[in-house]
Design brief:
Low-confidence stretches: 151-182
Mean pLDDT: 75
Order of helices and strands: EEEEEEEEEEHEEE
Number of helices: 1
Radius of gyration: 15 Å
Helix content: under 10%
Distance between the termini: 30 Å
Structural class: mainly beta
Number of strands: 13
Strand content: 35-45%
C-alpha cells in the first residue's frame, strides 16, 4: 500500500521544464504525503495539511536534480531532512504520516481538483520509496548517479505520470543482512 508511517525516504531524479505552481512528483494525497517541486523549490506536505512541513532548496530547470526527503518521526530535532543535488537543504522535527487508501501517484494527482494544472511538467526517473531514513552517504551515492542523457524519443516516456518501458525491480525486496527495505523502485530503461 506504500503508506510510509514513521520512518521513510522518498526520492526521485527530476528534470522540471517549468517552475510555475506545483509540479507534483510523488504523492498519496490528500491523506498521506505530497512531494513536489513548487515555484522552483522542494516541498513536502503531509496528512492533508495546507502548509508544507519542508520547503527549501532550488531545483534548476532543464537539468536533472536528485531529490530526496528522509524522515525519522522519533527524532524531534532533525528527523525530517530534505536534499537537493545531494545537499541537505532542510532539517526539522520528524513527522508521522497518516496511512491512507489513496493510490500512489507519480507526476500527477489521479482525479481531484486541479489535476491537470499541477501535473509534473518534465521528466522523472529513479523513483524510490524506502521504509527507512537514509543517511548522507546514501544520498551522496544517488546524487553521483544523476541521469546524463535522455534520447529524444524518451522525452514522451515520463511526462505527467505516464510510464513506459519502466521495470519494477526490487519491489518489496529485502536485504537479509539489513532492516532497510526498498518498498518501490522505478528505474527507466533505454531499449
Amino acid at each position: 500500500d506504500l503508506n510510509v508511517g514513521v520512518t521513510w525516504t522518498i526520492e526521485t531524479y527530476a528534470k522540471p521544464l517549468d517552475a510555475a505552481g506545483f509540479q507534483r512528483t510523488i504523492l498519496k494525497w490528500p491523506t498521506s504525503y505530497h512531494f513536489s517541486v513548487r515555484n522552483g523549490g522542494l516541498d513536502l506536505f503531509v496528512n492533508g495539511g495546507p502548509n508544507p512541513v519542508a520547503s527549501q532548496g532550488t531545483v534548476a530547470l532543464n537539468q536533472w536534480s536528485p531529490l530526496a526527503i528522509s524522515n525519522d518521526a522519533g527524532n524531534a530535532v532533525d528527523g525530517l531532512k530534505a536534499f537537493v543535488n545531494g545537499t541537505q537543504v532542510f532539517s526539522g522535527a520528524g513527522v508521522t504520516v497518516t496511512s491512507g487508501t489513496n493510490p500512489l501517484d507519480i507526476g500527477n494527482l489521479s482525479g481531484g481538483n486541479f489535476a491537470a494544472a499541477h501535473q509534473f511538467n518534465g521528466l522523472l526517473d529513479g523513483v524510490r520509496i524506502h521504509n527507512t531514513a537514509v543517511d548522507q552517504a546514501y544520498v551522496d551515492s544517488r546524487a553521483a548517479q544523476v541521469p546524463i542523457y535522455v534520447a529524444p524519443d524518451d522525452v514522451n516516456r515520463i511526462i505527467g505520470g505516464s510510464f513506459a518501458n519502466t521495470h519494477f525491480d526490487d519491489l518489496f525486496s529485502t536485504n537479509p543482512s539489513s532492516t532497510q527495505h526498498t518498498l518501490l523502485n522505478l528505474e527507466t530503461t533505454t531499449l
